[in-house]
Amino acid sequence: MARLDLSIGSVDLTRAICDIASVSGEEAELADAIYAEIAPLAHLDVHRDGNTIVARTGLGRSQRVVIAGHIDTVPINGNVPTRDVTVDGERYLWGRGTVDMKSGTAVQLKLAAELVAPRVDITWMWYDNEEVDSDLNGLTRLARTRPDLFAGDFAILGEPSDGQVEGGCNGTLRAVVRTHGVRAHSARAWMGENAIHRAAPILSRLAEYRPREIAVDGLVYREGLNAVRISGGVAGNVIPDLCEVEVNFRFAPSRSLAEAEEHVRRVLEGFEVEIVDGAAGARPGLDAPLAQEFLAAVGAEPRPKYGWTDVARFAAMGVPAVNYGPGNPSLAHHDEEQVSYAQIEAVEQGLRAWLTAS
Question: Which of 100, 121, 128, 130 is an active site residue?
Answer without folding.
Answer: 130
